[in-house]
From TrEMBL:
It holds the Pfam family SH2. GO terms for biological process: small GTPase-mediated signal transduction. PROSITE patterns: SH2. Keywords: SH2 domain. This is SH2D3A isoform 3. Residues 145-167, 204-227 are annotated as: Disordered. One of its GO terms (molecular function) is guanyl-nucleotide exchange factor activity. The gene is SH2D3A.
Length: 576
């Protein structure tokens, strides 16, 4: 196998399968070492390495780091964990020939590529495939020749049609030329519909020939509400028999709710008398991961979640958590009716008011629930010691991705640090020693950066300026307003109390700035629906306590689960 060069076309690689679902990819992986690279429909077309290891199918998202354009160097680097490569083929070649594990947590090694056996594929560069939040360019029409198709490599269609469509793949030999015009691809039909008609340019017979398409076709995007956009959707649009004006532009897809700009009139509105308590956590929402009734800690769901988190880089997981935290706090996605009911513009302002009691309780439960789930991710590893150390490293890397200057999600950072500092986790001496031995950088970052940062945030002295921070640390203020006493000597506790109240005033004043920073961090971000659901308070509550136990009193639920974590911790490392 030749070493791939920078900029080499990804679609030309034999192990690249294009748009392919997780289920179909797993069906192609037969034995340990088998692997392929696919475009994930749930991740907006981002590449994912799917492999078989120890009898299980694993999926790893390739993370893209955009660079400032400069002559003589690539526009982006690609990585799985630490090492970066100038192209995806170079990344795959290094891991396959060097027999290095794709991740330290799984130890999965790839050795045998599963080659694509289908029809001729369309050619896309890595920059086109990886268009995302870091790099968004306007669509440009491809040039067409007067006598030949622009490029035979662009013929055919994606290897996987959307659900509800019949696959209709045509070999190149079945695409005869019928005129001097280029052969045009049919736009994929919406979900649940059938293709409108067979066209002469597809080499098929029909009763009446359609009108001749223009030589320079325009582009169209399918309805964004039906399925996430992927690179395979940039297909030429053939006008209908009735005809369409070539100058008619495509409608712009609707922006997600977290990218909607705030109405200036709403932002500058005055306080009005509140009408009712407001909750930003949806209750009884249908779940795609849990059934209507579930038991606590179902093994199949835990296995699915483990694969889901391994598939996403910590930076991607941090953006998912920021999105869910902004919604739970009422920073983004607040409707006009909700503003009218609560009398203020955002949940950050509501937290400081008497009628924000219900929201304060929701955020306290969210913080504690996420911390328990993070601790379970470590204490639930009953395998070798290295597996638990890798789980610790994953939490540390997630905390680094959430810290100020990165995602800036301080409530998410506080929940992850709460898991790492939980007594049941911190007492695992052998696990932490293995972390320092195998993942020294993560261990040093935890001790020298994350722990002092978290201590300063809890004392009201940490960074809180909009820009560095997208969502401020609200837990100390929430506990204080709910009647919890400040621990410590009298002088220190009074000083901490004053800092907390001063920080709350600044938080309310800067609420519009935090909203703009959070929206900017999430601009262009397209979340994975399953991972987004897995980070919601309602899902984690049902996962830990089951559908029946989730309705029990909060103090009772947390006390019982703390005892469960204590038993798991003793089993892993018994007291001497």
């Amino acid at each position: 196998m030749q070493v791939p060069q920078d900029g080499e076309d990804l679609a030309g690689q034999p192990w690249y399968h294009g748009l392919l679902s997780r289920q179909k990819a797993e069906a192609l992986l037969q034995q340990d070492g088998d692997f392929l690279v696919r475009a994930s429909g749930s991740r907006g077309g981002n590449p994912v390495i799917s492999c078989c290891w120890r009898g299980s199918a694993l999926h790893f998202e390739v993370f893209r780091v955009a660079l400032r354009p400069r002559p003589g160097r690539p526009t982006a680097l690609f990585q799985l964990e630490d090492e970066q490569f100038p192209s995806i083929p170079a990344l795959v070649h290094s891991y396959m020939t060097g027999r290095r594990p794709l991740s330290q947590a799984t130890g999965a090694v790839v050795s045998r590529p599963v080659t694509w056996q289908g029809p001729l594929r369309r050619s896309f560069s890595e920059d086109t495939l990886m268009d995302g939040p870091a790099r968004i360019e306007p669509l440009r029409a491809r040039k067409w020749s007067n006598s030949q198709p622009a490029d035979l490599a662009h013929m055919g269609r994606s290897r996987e049609d959307p659900p509800g469509m019949e696959a209709s793949t045509m070999p190149i030999s079945a695409l005869p030329r019928t005129s001097s015009d280029p052969v045009l691809l049919k736009a994929p039909a919406p979900l649940g519909t059938v293709a409108d008609s067979l066209r002469a340019s597809d080499g098929q017979l029909q009763a009446k020939a359609p009108t001749k398409p223009p030589r320079t076709p325009s582009f169209e995007l399918p309805d964004a509400s039906e399925r996430p956009p992927t690179y395979c959707e940039l297909v030429p649009r053939v006008p209908s028999v009735q005809g369409t004006s070539p100058s008619q532009s495509c409608p712009e897809p609707e922006a997600p709710w977290w990218e909607a700009e705030e109405d200036e009139e709403e932002e500058n509105r005055c306080f009005t008398r509140p009408q009712a308590e407001i909750s930003f956590c949806p209750h009884d929402a249908p779940s795609c991961l849990l059934g209507p009734q579930n038991r606590p800690l179902e093994p199949q769901v835990l296995h699915t979640l483990r694969g889901l988190f391994l598939e996403h880089h910590p930076g991607s997981t941090a953006l998912h958590l920021l999105l869910v935290d902004c919604q739970a706090t009422g920073l983004l996605g607040v409707t006009r009716d909700q503003r009218g009911n609560m009398g203020v513009s955002s949940g950050l302002e509501l937290l400081t008011l008497p009628h924000g009691h219900h929201l304060r309780l929701e955020l306290l439960e969210r913080h504690q629930t996420l911390a328990l789930a993070g601790a379970l991710a470590v204490l639930g590893c009953s395998g070798p010691l290295e597996e638990r150390a890798a789980a610790l490293r994953g939490l540390v890397e997630l905390a680094l991705a959430l810290r100020p200057g990165a995602a800036g999600d301080l409530p998410g950072l506080a929940a992850v640090m709460g898991a790492l500092l939980m007594p049941q986790v911190s007492r695992l001496e052998h696990t932490w020693r293995q972390l320092r031995r195998s993942h020294t950088e993560a261990a040093l970052a935890f001790e020298q950066e994350l722990k002092p940062l978290m201590r300063a945030l809890d004392e009201g002295a940490g960074p809180c300026d909009p820009g560095e921070v997208a969502l401020p640390h609200v837990a100390p203020m929430v506990r204080l307003l709910e009647g919890e006493e400040v621990a410590g000597p009298l002088d220190e506790s009074c000083e901490r109390l004053l800092r907390t109240l001063h920080g709350a005033r600044h938080m309310v004043r800067d609420a519009p700035k935090f909203r703009k920073v959070a929206a900017q961090r999430l601009r262009g971000f397209r979340p994975n629906p399953e991972l987004r659901e897995a980070l919601t308070t309602g899902f984690v509550r049902r996962l830990l306590w089951g559908s029946r136990g989730a309705g029990a009193p909060r103090a009772e639920r947390f006390e019982k689960f703390q005892r469960v974590l204590g038993v798991l911790s003793q089993r892993l490392e018994p007291d001497r």
